[in-house]
């Protein structure tokens, strides 16, 4: 095997890149890992006490993701500020169909969790600072060229440009950096003609650790319990799907006007909306890369696939993919094969493909079915939601999708296992 400056370069030290680096430090500690991140990292950036902000952006973590973070030794600290989702309520605004999921029906304390992105990042950084992972920050991967036995990665650090050799480059810098396109990956994007408006809101009644998925004539909206992990409060994380025109109108309103408009769309299940925090928004597209690997390079996270946020599956899908990649790297390292070998990376792709195809189909079908306002489809939706609530088998399938407890994967120690088995399901 050719001598290289490092074994693996990860472009991007966000949630996906940092999680991959931590998992590799646990599963393959002999692997030399270098993370290239555009934001600086230092111990000073990891405070001892975390004080959540009202406007903190958050991520929905499925139950299966909790199991992964437990394997990484991260969950005990992460759970300090992770709000449990004990119930999920799915409904169609103005229709009678609805279905409800309860964690207790599955012998679990929660169906999932909601954690601030900044808290997730701080927990990962705290652990990574104690590992042998090398960080180049602030720095940026700007190009890559194949070389015998690996790749040459061009890195811009300050005003200097240098090249590091490695067995493999993993692109984990999201879907907007442009690096994957520069490297020649073919990206398919399908616009939903919608935008996601993200904000935290306060309501007159407690959320009781319930996540609401509300489908309306103007698009779906989700309210996820946010705030204290131990006491059910009145703060929720909002994901509101809006057309370009509706988004512009909502953004032009005062906070009171936004709350009133939200009330009209969501209803009164949580009482009166009395506060909305800072709003951010982004256009919604279904982004996929059919061939996310080539010799010496692999795409992960949003660089490989970006989903509609309707079912909160994006980061959870990425996390499962990362663990699949870690296992293939572990097997390659133990057999003396380069981790950038195309056969190694294709096995990762093949094992992850079914998961991402099914998850994309699940999320995309929800948008298409609930976005159709024709009378036959409206009636079918009512029947479907009521049937889902009444049929144990269908409800169990839906719960497994929501909890991310389906399919097989290997844990970071190389033991083949089913996430469903780990969580006590059949």
UniProtKB/TrEMBL annotation:
<keyword id="KW-0274">FAD</keyword>
<feature type="domain" description="FAD-binding">
    <location>
        <begin position="5"/>
        <end position="362"/>
    </location>
</feature>
<comment type="similarity">
    <text>Belongs to the UbiH/COQ6 family.</text>
</comment>
<dbReference type="InterPro" id="IPR010971">
    <property type="entry name" value="UbiH/COQ6"/>
</dbReference>
<feature type="region of interest" description="Disordered">
    <location>
        <begin position="407"/>
        <end position="426"/>
    </location>
</feature>
<dbReference type="GO" id="GO:0006744">
    <property type="term" value="P:ubiquinone biosynthetic process"/>
</dbReference>
<keyword id="KW-0503">Monooxygenase</keyword>
<keyword id="KW-0285">Flavoprotein</keyword>
<keyword id="KW-0560">Oxidoreductase</keyword>
<dbReference type="GO" id="GO:0008681">
    <property type="term" value="F:2-octaprenyl-6-methoxyphenol hydroxylase activity"/>
</dbReference>
<dbReference type="Pfam" id="PF01494">
    <property type="entry name" value="FAD_binding_3"/>
</dbReference>
<protein>
    <submittedName>
        <fullName>2-octaprenyl-6-methoxyphenyl hydroxylase</fullName>
        <ecNumber>1.14.13.-</ecNumber>
    </submittedName>
</protein>
<dbReference type="GO" id="GO:0071949">
    <property type="term" value="F:FAD binding"/>
</dbReference>
<dbReference type="InterPro" id="IPR051205">
    <property type="entry name" value="UbiH/COQ6_monooxygenase"/>
</dbReference>
<dbReference type="InterPro" id="IPR036188">
    <property type="entry name" value="FAD/NAD-bd_sf"/>
</dbReference>
<dbReference type="InterPro" id="IPR002938">
    <property type="entry name" value="FAD-bd"/>
</dbReference>
<comment type="pathway">
    <text>Cofactor biosynthesis; ubiquinone biosynthesis.</text>
</comment>
């Amino acid at each position: 095997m050719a001598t290289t400056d490092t074994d693996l370069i990860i472009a991007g030290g966000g949630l996906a890149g940092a999680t991959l680096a931590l998992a590799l430090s646990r599963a393959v500690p002999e692997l030399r890992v270098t993370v290239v991140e555009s934001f600086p990292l230092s111990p000073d950036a990891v405070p001892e006490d975390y004080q959540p902000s009202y406007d903190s952006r958050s991520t929905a973590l499925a139950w299966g993701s909790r199991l992964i973070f437990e394997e990484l030794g991260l969950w005990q600290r992460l759970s300090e500020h992770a709000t449990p989702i004990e119930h999920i309520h799915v409904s169609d605004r103005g229709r009678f169909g609805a279905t409800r999921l309860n964690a207790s029906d599955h012998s679990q304390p929660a169906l999932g969790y909601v954690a601030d992105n900044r808290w997730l990042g701080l927990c990962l950084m705290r652990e990574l600072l104690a590992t042998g992972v090398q960080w180049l920050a602030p720095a940026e991967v700007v190009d890559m060229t194949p070389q015998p036995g690996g790749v040459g990665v061009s890195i811009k650090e300050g005003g200097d440009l240098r090249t590091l050799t490695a067995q493999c480059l993993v692109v984990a810098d999201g879907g907007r950096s442009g690096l994957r396109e520069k490297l020649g990956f073919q990206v398919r994007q399908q616009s939903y003609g919608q935008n996601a408006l993200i904000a935290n809101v306060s309501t007159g009644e407690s959320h009781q650790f319930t996540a609401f998925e509300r489908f309306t004539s103007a698009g779906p909206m989700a309210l996820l319990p946010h705030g204290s992990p131990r006491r059910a409060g009145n703060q929720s994380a909002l994901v509101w799907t809006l057309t370009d025109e509706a988004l512009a109108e909502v953004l032009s309103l005062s906070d009171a006007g936004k709350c009133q408009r939200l009330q009209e769309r969501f209803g009164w299940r949580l009482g009166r909306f009395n506060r909305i925090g800072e709003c951010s928004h982004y256009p919604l597209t279904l982004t996929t890369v059919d061939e996310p690997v080539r010799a010496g390079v692999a795409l992960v996270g949003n660089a490989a696939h970006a989903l509609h946020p309707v079912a909160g599956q994006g980061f959870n899908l990425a996390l499962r993919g990362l663990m699949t990649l870690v296992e293939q790297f572990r097997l390659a390292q133990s057999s003396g094969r380069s981790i950038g070998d195309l056969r190694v990376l294709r096995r990762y792709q093949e094992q992850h493909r079914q998961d991402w195809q099914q998850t994309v189909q699940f999320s995309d079908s929800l948008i298409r079915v609930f976005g159709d306002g024709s009378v036959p489809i409206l009636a079918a939706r009512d029947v479907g939601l009521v049937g889902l609530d009444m049929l144990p088998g269908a409800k169990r399938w839906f719960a497994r999708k929501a909890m991310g407890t389906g399919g097989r994967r290997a844990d970071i120690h190389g033991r083949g296992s089913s996430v469903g088995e780990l969580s006590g399901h059949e």
